[in-house]
Structure formats: C-alpha cells, structure tokens
Design a protein that fits this description.
The protein contains nine helices and ten strands. The chain is α/β, with parallel strands linked by helices and 250 residues long. Helix 4 (116-130) packs across helix 5, helix 5 runs parallel beside helix 6 (175-191) and helix 6 runs parallel beside helix 7 (204-210). The chain binds adenosine-5'-triphosphate and magnesium ion.
C-alpha cells in the first residue's frame, strides 16, 4: 500500500437479529483522503459509521485506527484518539453563542490541555475556516440550517480529529448551500491537519464534487469503489440505486 493507512477495517460484520447490516467488510482509508460512502437505503452505511465511531461493536472482525486496535474501545476514547463525527441532526446547545459552542469542543476534545485563551484562539481560527467568524457572537439557535451544519462541523473540528466522519451533511439543502458546505469541507482538509473526511450522502452531486474515492455499499457489502466518475456510471449501481447516470455526468 503506497500512502499511509489511517483507518483499516478487517472483515467486519455486524448483525441485528437476522439482519446482516454490515457483512464482512474490509476497507482502508488513507491519511488526508476524501472518501464518499453511498448506497441505497438500508445498505449499511450508518451502521458502518457506528462501528467506526464505537456506537456498535462488530460481531466479528477488527478495526485499526492510526495503528491502534480500537475494535473494543468505547466511543469517548476514540474521540481522544482523533475520531470525530457530526450528527445527522445537528444538536448544538441553542442557548450558547456560536463561539461558546465550539469552545466546548476545543476544551474537552482530543488529548490536549488547552487553557481557555488558547482554546478561544483555536476556536476563532476554525470559525474563520468554516465561514462563521462573523456570526461568532450570535446565539446558536438563531442560525439558519446550513449555518447550523457549519457549526456542527466546527464543533467536530475543535476536537482536532484525524478522521472526520460526516453522515448526510447536505441532505435537504439547496444545491447552492450544498456546494458551499462541500467546498468548506474540502478547505478543511487542505488547511487544517484534519487528515480525512468520510462522507455518507444521498446527494450524488455533492459526492462527486467532494470525493476522491467513492465506496458504494449494497446489502451490507462493498459493491464497488473508485473515482466518482467511474462509480456513478456503473451499470449495477445505476440499476440498484441511481436509476440513471446523473445528467451532469453524461
Ligand atoms: N439498531 C438497529 N436495530 C435493528 N436493525 C437495524 C439497526 N440499525 C440498522 N438496522 C438494519 O440494518 C440495515 C442497515 O441499516 P443502515 O441504517 O446502516 O443503512 P443505511 O445505509 O444507513 O441506510 P439510509 O440510507 O436509509 O440511512 C437495515 O436493514 C436496517 O434496517
Ligand atoms: Mg443511514
């Protein structure tokens, strides 16, 4: 393997009763890689995420993060190692300002011991990168939906992740707002030391704009992977999920 592996899943399986939600999946995500994960409803994408962030333990298989076996590690320890996620439904503390919300992440995330002033400096840098600096003193509950997504992103970034996991960040947004968020995520990869971003998304335009590599799941397994231009044209994927090759790709 050429570039360095950050996350490795080896033969990971997760069952819920009779359902095999994730079926013997092996995959590697490299440092600084932008990966999109797609697939029809029920394909196992969110379950895969929850295995990586520790909400679920696999029935079989191993998960290695940054050289450490995290298979049985609780979620908070994974956060300390540099695994961060955002939630499908943003849940900032509405009564706090934007800056305060992000400061909480900076003070409690990762293995750093920042004092309050250092934390606030870091917070302002992050707010600048995600484009919320002008709104830093606003009460969080007053933000628009896309702004709340950006805040959620900023809170995750404040924990200095090496791997950022994003589940459906652009769902329900206008194409313009979605493009803005995707561009922000790419900027984060470029400007911060956040190594990797993995994105689960049903909006193919956003996936194509974002991902260097797309992993397509179906019935708990990896159906295929590769550059978006190839994966989104794949006959099997079109049949089970896309319906047709997106017009902007033709
Ligand atoms: N907590 C659970 N208990 C029982 N079954 C579950 C649970 N979570 C997921 N499943 C089942 O596992 C399979 C995979 O679900 P998962 O949520 O991972 O799919 P997904 O790819 O994220 O789908 P979507 O695109 O709809 O979000 C589905 O059959 C689902 O019903
Ligand atoms: Mg899901």
């Amino acid at each position: 393997m050429g570039e360095e592996a950050l996350l490795v899943l080896e033969n990971v399986t997760k069952r819920f009763g009779g359902i095999v939600a994730v079926d013997n999946v092996s995959l590697t995500i490299r440092r600084r890689e932008l990966v999109g994960i797609i697939g029809p409803n029920g394909a196992g994408k969110t379950t895969l995420f929850n295995l990586i962030n520790g909400v679920y333990k696999p029935d079989t298989g191993r998960i290695i993060f940054d050289g450490i076996d995290i298979t049985n590690m609780p979620p908070y320890k994974r956060v300390e190692l540099g695994l961060a996620r955002t939630f499908q439904i943003p849940r900032p503390w509405g009564a706090l300002t934007v800056r305060e919300n992000v400061a909480v992440g900076a003070l409690f995330g990762s293995e750093r011991n920042l004092n309050v002033l250092e934390a606030l400096e870091e917070v302002d840098r992050i707010l600048e990168i995600v484009g919320l600096y002008e709104k830093r003193n606003e009460i969080s509950s007053k933000l628009t939906v896309p702004e709340k997504k950006l805040l959620e992103l900023a809170r995750a970034l404040a924990m200095k992740p090496k791997l950022l996991l994003l589940d459906e960040v652009v769902a329900g947004m206008s194409p313009a707002d979605a493009d803005k968020i995707v561009d922000t995520i790419k900027r984060i990869r470029d400007e911060l030391d956040v190594a990797v971003v993995a994105l689960v998304e049903h909006v193919m335009r956003a996936v194509a704009r974002f991902a260097e590599r797309v992993i397509a799941m179906h019935q708990g397994r990896i159906l295929l992977e590769g550059p978006p231009q190839e994966v989104l044209r794949d006959k099997r994927l079109v049949e089970i999920y896309l319906g047709e090759i997106p017009s902007w790709l033709r």
